[in-house]
């Protein structure tokens, strides 16, 4: 079974275009399931998913578990490994769509200016450039970590991004981010290993891990006294501020690299919620 899982993982990444993080999660889910069930049958799979929920796994986690089983089941059927797909009808409770976390402009300014003030070491400069880029270009943390130096074109003010599904897009680079990146490129050679292509590297000189940058951002937010925020929160914040500033929804879709406009529309809900709060506070007839 392990050999089949490895082949399936390769199929997900190369043929289906799943991100490396999604492939890792699906493989982990499948291995966890296979280590718990007696056989790959619909009854066993449903029982396992029920046990996951009973153990306290969130709806989102159980939904991903089920998605992994369905993906493996359909592949196994196509490969002739099983005669019928036991996971095809597996469904889970719908996951509540949470509104994205958003900082106001004052909080973002405090956060990024704080990063700039702390940029007195090469790693500090890296953090400043990294977080400016997340907010300024609306990148996912994995996208930023996957950037190579050659993806950056500061003369023309853009960079090439490889997003979900291995889809490439061009993202703009704002002036503050460009200044931070220029300083980081000067410092990078003191940290990066010889021949390293990654734009952002860690203390050992190789490509930085997204988990490292998540932790760095949480600590920066705490030091600057702003609400705690994850890297994806800066991306949410960037999109919401773009829409608040009058950007077209289709433009923001391309800016973020969303395949579906429905995904981008979540950010209009956030802005509407803020509008409602301001209205209730300010209007005498609210």
UniProtKB/TrEMBL annotation:
Question: Any idea where the Core-binding (CB) domain is?
Answer: 1-77
**Gene Ontology MF terms in the entry:** DNA binding; tyrosine-based site-specific recombinase activity
InterPro entries in the record: CB, DNA_brk_join_enz, Integrase-like_cat_sf, Integrase_catalytic, Integrase_recombinase_N, Integrase_SAM-like_N, Tyrosine_recombinase_XerC/XerD, Tyrosine_recombinase_XerCD
Coiled-coil residues: none
* Gene3D superfamilies per UniProt: 1.10.150.130, Intergrase catalytic core
- Active-site residues, as the UniProt record annotates them: 140, 164, 232, 235, 258, 267 (o-(3'-phospho-dna)-tyrosine intermediate)
Domain annotation Tyr recombinase: ranges: 98-280
Q: Does the keyword NAD apply?
A: no
Fetch the PROSITE patterns from UniProt. CB, TYR_RECOMBINASE
Q: Which UniProt keywords apply?
A: Cell cycle, Cell division, Chromosome partition, Cytoplasm, DNA integration, DNA recombination, DNA-binding
Where does the protein principally reside? cytoplasm
Q: Where are the transmembrane segments?
A: none
Q: What's a single GO CC term here? A: cytoplasm
Tell me a GO biological process for this protein: chromosome segregation
Q: Where in the cell is it found?
A: Cytoplasm
Name the CDD domains on file: INT_XerDC_C
Q: From which domain of life does this come?
A: Bacteria
Which function does this protein serve? Site-specific tyrosine recombinase, which acts by catalyzing the cutting and rejoining of the recombining DNA molecules. The XerC-XerD complex is essential to convert dimers of the bacterial chromosome into monomers to permit their segregation at cell division. It also contributes to the segregational stability of plasmids.
The text of the family note is: Belongs to the 'phage' integrase family. XerC subfamily.
Which PANTHER family does the UniProt entry name for this protein?
Answer: PHAGE INTEGRASE-RELATED, TYROSINE RECOMBINASE XERC
Q: How does it assemble?
A: Forms a cyclic heterotetrameric complex composed of two molecules of XerC and two molecules of XerD.
The UniProt entry, under HAMAP family, shows: Recomb_XerC_XerD (MF_01808)
What is the name attached to this protein's record?
A: Tyrosine recombinase XerC
Q: Which organism is it from?
A: Scrofimicrobium canadense
Q: What is the lineage of its organism?
A: Bacteria, Bacillati, Actinomycetota, Actinomycetes, Actinomycetales
């Amino acid at each position: 079974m392990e050999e089949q899982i490895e082949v399936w993982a390769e199929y997900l990444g190369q043929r289906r275009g799943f991100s490396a993080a999604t492939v890792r999660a699906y493989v982990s889910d499948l291995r966890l399931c296979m280590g718990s069930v007696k056989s790959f049958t619909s009854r066993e799979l449903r029982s396992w998913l029920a046990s996951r929920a009973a153990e306290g796994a969130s709806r989102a986690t159980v939904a991903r578990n089920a998605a992994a089983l369905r993906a493996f089941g359909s592949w196994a059927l196509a490969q002739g490994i099983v005669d019928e797909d036991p996971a095809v009808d597996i469904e889970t409770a719908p996951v509540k769509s949470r509104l994205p976390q958003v900082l106001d402009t004052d909080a973002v300014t405090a956060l990024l200016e704080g990063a700039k003030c702390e940029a007195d070491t090469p790693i500090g400069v890296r953090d400043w450039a990294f977080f400016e880029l997340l907010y300024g270009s609306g990148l996912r943390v994995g996208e930023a970590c996957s950037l190579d130096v050659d993806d950056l074109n500061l003369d023309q003010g853009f960079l090439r991004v490889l997003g979900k599904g291995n889809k490439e897009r061009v993202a703009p680079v704002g002036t503050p981010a460009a200044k931070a990146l220029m300083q980081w490129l000067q410092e990078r050679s003191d940290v990066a290993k010889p021949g390293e292509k990654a734009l952002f590297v860690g203390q050992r000189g190789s490509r930085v891990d997204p988990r490292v940058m998540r932790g760095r951002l949480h600590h920066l937010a705490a030091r600057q006294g702003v609400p705690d925020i994850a890297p994806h929160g800066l991306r949410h914040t960037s999109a919401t501020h773009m829409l608040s500033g009058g950007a077209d929804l289709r433009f923001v879709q391309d800016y973020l690299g969303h395949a579906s406009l429905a995904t981008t529309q979540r950010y209009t809900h956030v802005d509407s919620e803020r509008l409602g709060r301001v209205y209730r506070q300010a209007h005498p007839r609210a």
